[in-house]
TrEMBL record:
Its cofactor is Ca(2+). Binds 1 Ca(2+) ion per subunit. This is Subtilisin-like protein. One of its GO terms (biological process) is proteolysis. One of its GO terms (cellular component) is extracellular region. The keyword Chloroplast does not apply. The lineage of its organism: Eukaryota, Fungi, Dikarya, Basidiomycota, Agaricomycotina. PROSITE patterns: SEDOLISIN. Residues 213-628 form the Peptidase S53 domain. Ca(2+) binds at D587, V588, G606, D608.
Length: 629
């Protein structure tokens, strides 16, 4: 007894010795008490995969327009085999659990994907195994979680074979952020209790210009995007909505009756993940916006798939469930005390997947970074099969999320726009995502619906962060900047260096990470979009709108390539930044994305961290992509 206590005590000292300072409990969570040592938990080891160091070059091989293998995407099975953890990895981790930790062989299980090992151990055994102290934590919504926020230690020979251990340090976002993080929803008033902007007289709005009400016609004119699908029976496109975000078919019809009659009566094709239900009670904002824009722009000749992601107690982040359903990563069997993640790589995969949610701040933090790295790797693996992931860059300017969180010198995030370092968001920060920023038509500027030449674009600069109901203009603060987790890929090096050399403000080096992956990559309109929601027309937007608009453009490019007997475009970032796409963007040069008590970054000619390369000119972009093999 005494000996055991001594050993545990010793382990704790060692751990404290390697950790510089006591780690704070993650924001939003409260530490309640030590976990009961006799309780069994499923402890999961996400195994390191093979060939991850080659992922980027393998992707470039099929995505660089100059490559002889452009468009020759891999099959799902090929990807699985190439990245499967090696037998050395599996044997090392299993051997450690078996021999060093004495866990019975029948309690050690490998998932069907071969990338997750699960054991059934008591809290006391987990603590000894990981040299960690387990506690029970809670958030304000009553969610409870076991974990060890101070960290854990693996033996050296095991550590290099393990990417993540669950449950340990990653807590997900507490409270409402845990599952519901639509980038624009809180900001533009869709969250419960927040105001929204009803349109009393739609007819008068129809008369007004694209600076005061953005309709599908405005988007078509702005992006030279008059599209009728010809490959609808072969092409696929999807949008992701997470638990608690739902839509009403009657809202779609209200919208389609006015703006897209051929879609009246149609709804997206449901791909339910872990029981996701788009008709449950929940927030209407994000799905109404995404689905109406995509179905409206694409028309009835192209079906839209809706990935509705449910919630299991098992997933640390809702993205785990999405990725599990698409490629089998993270999946695990249900066992006593855990529902498991059972939609395991068997869901249909669409050519384009649009995501208007932020899942995590892009923090370089040992409790967050490994998880972001792993999710980004899974996104890259899926891109290798020819999927284009499009995501909103966020609406917080250079701060994180609508709560305007900035990074303080002690490593914590603080809300409310404090002076601090800039914080981006994941998944936009992942280089395998095409991140989309938001623009608006300049007040007073007109858009000729029948022709799109000679337009003047502007980003509306936010003067304050309050949504003033009586006194629009409303605004979007496209999030953009430089990742703290992901290095800058070669394909954007030239465009980004040009910005850093010629236009970037001279902030102290601690304010943003000059060597990080820079984003957004592109932009599309983000305000003020007319949509139907909750039985009435409202104005909505943010980069939440920009992502589905750009995703629709990519889907339409795929439609043309498929008609020409070519592959879908897949991972498009290397092509977007390539000389072949020069001149296919409307360059946005006015505006900025303030935050963290700075003016943020100014837009500039060429790529900038506000509008990326610019907004798309569909016809020209399509022509360029049709040139590729
Ligand atoms: C869309 O989905 C419906 C229902 O599955 C199907 O009948 C229709 O053929 C699809 N449309 C296209 C263009 O593939
Ligand atoms: C874990 O092991 C204990 C003790 O052998 C057993 O009672 C329990 O059912 C096991 N749980 C699972 C999920 O296998
Ligand atoms: C819109 O463009 C068309 C074609 O260039 C032109 O004939 C028409 O006069 C323009 N309308 C307005 C309102 O500028
Ligand atoms: C900057 O990004 C790189 C990845 O390119 C990362 O290794 C480094 O730690 C980051 N620096 C900071 C201060 O976050």
């Amino acid at each position: 007894m005494t000996l055991t206590h001594l050993l545990v005590g010793f382990a704790t000292v060692v751990l404290t010795g390697v950790t510089a300072a006591p780690r704070p409990v993650p924001a939003g969570w409260t530490r309640h008490h030590r976990a009961d040592p006799d309780v069994f938990i499923p402890l999961k080891f996400t195994l390191a995969q093979s060939n991850v160091d080659r992922l980027e070059s393998l992707l470039l091989d099929v995505s660089d327009p100059q490559s002889p293998n452009y468009g020759k995407h891999w099959t799902h099975v090929q990807v699985k085999e190439a990245f499967r953890p090696s037998s050395e990895t599996v044997d090392t981790v299993r051997g450690w659990l078996l021999h060093d930790a004495g866990i019975p062989v029948d309690q050690i299980k490998l998932n069907v994907n071969g990338d997750m090992m699960q054991v059934n151990v008591t809290i006391a055994e987990a603590e000894a195994l990981l040299k960690a102290e387990y506690y029970v934590y809670g958030d304000d919504d009553g969610a409870a979680r076991v974990g060890c926020h101070e960290g854990y230690t693996l033996p050296d020979h095991v550590a290099k074979h393990v990417d993540l251990v669950w449950p340990t340090t990653h807590f997900g976002r507490a409270g409402q952020f845990a599952r519901r993080s639509g980038t624009s929803s809180a900001y533009f008033g869709h969250e419960a209790g927040a105001p929204k902007i009803p349109i009393k007289n739609l007819a008068s709005f129809a008369e007004s210009g694209c600076d005061t009400a953005v309709t599908l016609d405005c988007l078509r004119a702005l992006y030279n995007f008059d599209f009728t699908p010809v490959s609808g029976s072969k092409n696929t496109v999807g949008v992701v909505e997470f638990e608690g975000n739902v839509y009403m078919p009657s809202d779609l019809d209200l919208f389609f009756e006015t703006y897209r009659p051929d879609q009246v009566g149609h709804t997206p094709t449901l791909i339910s993940i872990e029981g996701g239900n788009p008709f449950a009670a929940g927030n209407l904002g994000e799905p109404s916006l995404d689905i109406e824009l995509m179905m409206g722009l694409l028309g009835s000749g192209q079906n839209l798939s809706l990935y509705q992601v449910g919630e299991t107690s098992e997933a640390q982040e809702p993205a785990d469930e999405l990725l599990a359903a698409l490629d089998g990563a993270y999946c695990s069997d249900p066992v006593v005390g855990s529902e498991g993640i059972t939609d395991c790589g068997d869901k249909p995969r669409t050519n384009v997947i649009s995501i208007s949610y932020h899942l995590s701040p892009d923090l370089n933090d040992p409790t967050i970074s490994p998880e972001l790295q792993r999710m980004c790797t899974e996104i890259g693996k899926l891109s290798l099969t020819g999927i284009t992931f499009v995501a909103s860059s966020g609406d917080g300017g250079v701060a994180y999320s609508q709560a305007a969180e900035c990074l303080l010198p002690d490593g914590t995030l603080e809300a409310g726009n404090p002076a601090g370092s800039f914080v981006g968001q994941f998944p936009a920060s992942c280089p395998f995502i095409t991140a989309v920023g938001a623009t608006s038509v300049a007040p007073g500027a007109s858009v000729n619906i029948s022709t799109s030449t000679g337009l003047f674009f502007i980003l509306i600069i936010a003067k304050c962060r309050q949504v003033k109901l009586k006194n629009p203009p409303l605004f979007s603060l496209p999030e953009g900047g430089f990742s703290n987790n992901f290095a800058r890929p070669d394909w954007q090096q030239g465009a980004v260096q040009n910005y850093l050399d010629n236009f970037a403000p001279k902030y102290a080096s601690s304010i943003f990470n000059r060597s990080g992956r820079a984003y957004p990559d592109v932009a599309a309109n983000g305000w003020p979009l007319v949509i139907a929601q909750g039985g009435e027309f409202t104005l909505s937007g943010g980069t939440s709108a920009s992502a589905p608009i750009f995703a629709s453009v990519v889907a339409a490019i795929n439609d043309a390539r498929i008609a020409a007997g070519k592959s879908p475009v897949g991972f498009i970032n290397p092509a977007l930044y390539s000389p072949a796409l020069l001149g296919t963007f409307n360059d946005v040069t006015v505006g900025s994305n303030p935050g963290c008590q700075t003016q943020g970054f100014p837009a500039a000619p060429g790529w900038d961290p506000v509008s990326g390369l610019g907004t798309p000119n569909f016809e020209e972009m399509k022509a360029a992509f049709l040139e590729f093999q």
